[in-house]
Amino acid sequence: MSAPTRIVVIEDEVPIRRFLRASLTPEEAEFFESGTGEEGIRMVAQKSPDLVLLDLGLPDIDGLEVVRRLREWTAVPIIVISARGQEKDKIAALDAGADDYLTKPFALGELMARMRVAQRHFALSQHAVEKTFESNGLRVDFESRQVFVEGREVRLTPTEYRLVALLARHAGKVLTHNQILREVWGQAYEDSTHTLRVHMGTVRQKIEADPARPKFVRTETGIGYRLMLE
Ligand code: CA
């Protein structure tokens, strides 16, 4: 059996902390809880957790500030918890280096899935760069710069390839529009969400069996895109 996941929870709402503690067994997770951002940052430094669950609305400092300060020295997966309708805050948190987000109220199954993906992504990022990505019938060969769907090669333009390759390198993780624009098109194209949407449309025409119901790349409405892991 593997050791329990060490989780620092930075959240001032006691019912949510109680829900988390009640949801996972001590064999599954060991919780360290903080109701403020400053204490939470110290706790992450002291406990070296496997994962951080972070509320954006904290009584002392902004959750965003917590993300920025943690990212100065740690790559620990951070999942942000926020209230519905805080899209701008979620985007800012992802841009600042958070791995994913959950919208309150969230179901346990959703939390578990996000935790698994964040940890898998972290584990992958610690290894040498992979030569290929494969999941769900989609294969990306980063050396030959080829993309295959169910074993058949898909012809992509260089920009479309960069888009797919970027999402595949961060599979499971939501990337914001600005993160994608910056990586694929460069700094000057930040805020050109329309450009991204057009290219994503053509990519979907090429890789998805039904572009209206994408299987590989999911739209995170108002935030960005996520390449799904099986
Ligand atoms: Ca709060």
Walk me through the structure.
40% of the residues lie in helices and 23% in strands. It is of the alpha/beta class. Strand 4, helix 4 (87-95) and strand 5 (100-104) form a beta-alpha-beta unit. The longest helix has 19 residues, at 108-126. The mean pLDDT is 91. Bound molecules: calcium ion (CA). Calcium ion (CA) is lined by residues 12-13, 55, 57-58. Calcium ion is lined by residues 12-13, 55, 57-58.
Layout of helices and strands:
Blueprint: E1 5-10, H1 14-23, E2 29-34, H2 37-47, E3 51-55, H3 63-71, E4 78-83, H4 87-95, E5 100-104, H5 108-126, E6 132-135, E7 138-141, E8 146-149, E9 152-154, H6 158-169, E10 174-176, H7 177-184, H8 193-207, E11 217-220, E12 224-227
Parallel strand pairs: 1-2, 1-3, 3-4, 4-5
Antiparallel strand pairs: 6-7, 7-8, 8-9, 10-12, 11-12
Helix pairs in contact: 2-3, 6-8
Bound molecules: calcium ion.
Descriptive terms for the model:
40% helix, Rossmann fold, 230 residues, alpha/beta, 12 strands, 2 domains, binds calcium ion
- CATH superfamily label of the largest domain: Response regulator
The tally of beta strands, per DSSP, is 12
Described by strand count, sense and barrel closure, the largest sheet is: 5 strands, parallel
Q: Helicity level, as a percent range?
A: 40-55%
Gross geometry: globular
Secondary-structure-based class equals alpha/beta
CATH architecture descriptor text of the largest domain: 3-Layer(aba) Sandwich
CATH structural class of the largest domain: Alpha Beta
How many domains? 2
The strands making up the biggest β-sheet line up spatially as 2-1-3-4-5
Uncertain regions spanning at least 5 consecutive residues:
none
N-to-C series of helices and strands: EHEHEHEHEHEEEEHEHHEE
**CATH fold topology of the largest domain:** Rossmann fold
Number of helices: 8
Strand content: 15-25%
What ligand species are in this complex? Answer: calcium ion
User: How large, in whole angstroms, is the Cα Rg?
Assistant: 18 Å
Amino-to-carboxy terminus distance: 23 Å
